[in-house]
Amino acid sequence: AWANLQAAPADKILGLTVLYNKDTNPSKINLGVGAYRDNNGKPWILPSVKKAEEVLAKTEESKEYVPIVGSPKFNELIKTLLYSHDDAGKQLLKDGRVLTSQGISGTGSLRVLGEFVRTFYPTSKKVLVPNPTWANHVAILEKAGLTTEKYKYYDFKTNALDEQGMLADLAAAEPGTVVLLHACCHNPTGVDPKLEQWDKILDVISEKKLLPFLDMAYQGFGSGSPIEDLGILFKFNKAVADGKLSNFVLSQSFAKNMGLYGERVGSLSLITSGPEETVRVKSQLEKVIRPLYSSPPSHGSKLVEIILSDEAIYQQWLKDVKVMADRLIEMRALLYDKLKNTYKNPLNWDHLLNQKGMFCYTGLSEEQVKKLIDKSVYLTSDGRISIAGIYPANVDYLAKAIHEVTTN
Ligand code: LMR
After folding, report:
1. Which residues are in the Aminotransferase class I/classII large domain (predicted)?
2. DSSP β-ladder status, 98-103 and 29-30
């Protein structure tokens, strides 16, 4: 049956890990996948997660299926984490307008929301996505049966937000179109709109009645605090509470900020007009999820429940997030210093310091990326580097390699 089947190209991000693992060069560096590494380049199980594992080992009573949308406790805690830190969010909760569901990390949450929007959103089947965006976004949304189109986002000349281009593209959209927005730490560019730019974006969204589809995979990596990074969500909550926006949807992941990559745990939220609509929407959401994966995995979500409900462990988690965010900032500075001061690289590297989160969009060309891969430095072909893969012992090799490919 598969005799004429062509091999598919390797995944643009995860395929790099496969190449990296095969490479025998002891100096090899993996700056491909966005996965946190510690100062020795090792994966890190968060101390808060270790504590939660201990609690879970002692208290877990069953491995029974959890409900289709996840456990009621998980969903209550998600609402508290995301919607209880601002007045508008609290009001939405009080009015019964927030529906949440566990999702299979960011990807699964995006897919379920994509399926839901395609099936039930009457106005549009098109999603506007930023140019550029996470490579998997387009694939997820299109597999869910939606079409995608790019809006201007990144100014490739200045390495900053193309504010005018973005506003103009959104203003030119068909009324009611879905628009995908990264809530913080834009992947791959690390460039987020400033809070006052979000106000302008929200004005256009409101005017054109666009449906915002927020994706929040790096909550905490922008400011070092998962709560402070909700600043954008607060604006959307307020816009809904003020009647400027009728709703939005949100996907969220604990892969990065709890380091629960392989546990596949995250959430999705939908805003409704009130409790009665919430019940109806939930019933249809269950019909979307059940044939896809029946019900979500429970080990990771139980860890999340413990972390979000045990005050001491929660405080530890906030510290853990800060440790990760701070280390990324340090590595940005270290690489910048090596490039500019040790190797006297003539290019402008300010964006290394200015961009936020796990990634730096270096501006390296595809040709330069190929040359770096020849030197066993793995990064995506668009020139994105995962800062998390940098640590004190490899930064010199990395800076030297970047210097060589940008000056020869
Ligand atoms: C990334 O962009 O590297 C991460 O979101 C991991 C992934 O699944 O691509």
Report:
1. 27-402
2. unpaired
Q: With contact defined as beta carbons under 8 Å apart, do 149 and 133 qualify? A: no
User: How many Å apart are CA 239 and CA 99, to the nearest integer?
Assistant: 17
Q: What would the mean pLDDT of 359-373 be, rounded to a whole number?
A: 96
Give the model's pLDDT for residue 394.
Answer: 97
Rounded to an integer, the average pLDDT of 387-392 is 97
Q: Specify the pairing of strand 359-361 against strand 384-386.
A: antiparallel
CA distances (Å), origin 294, targets 139, 297, 318: 22, 10, 32
pLDDT tens-digit readout, 78-136: 999 999 999 999 999 999 999 999 999 999 999 999 999 999 999 999 999 999 999 89
Ligand 1 geometric centre to CA of 261 (Å): 10
Phi, psi of 243 (to 5 degrees): 80, 10
The C-alpha angle with vertex 297 and arms to 36 and 270, in degrees rounded to 5, equals 85
What are the φ and ψ backbone dihedral angles of 293, each rounded to 5 degrees?
-150, 15
- What is the whole-number distance in angstroms between the Cα of residue 344 and the centre of ligand 1? 32
Residue 134 bears catalytic tag:
yes
d(CA 146, CA 374): 38
Ligand 1 site residues, Cβ closer than 6 angstroms: 13, 33-34, 134, 136, 187
Exposure class string for 289-312: b at 16+ Cβ within 10 A, else e: beeeeebbbbebbbbbbbbbebee
Domains of the chain: 14-44+324-407 (3.90.1150.10), 65-309 (3.40.640.10)
The residue nearest atom 2 of ligand 1, judged by CA position, is: 34
**DSSP reduced 3-state for 6:** coil
Structure-token pair, residue 351: 């964006």
Place of tokens 């998980």: 74
- pLDDT greater than 90 at residue 150: yes
User: How many CB atoms within 10 Å of residue 11?
Assistant: 15
Q: What are the two backbone dihedrals, phi and then psi, of residue 142, each rounded to the nearest 5 degrees?
A: -70, -35
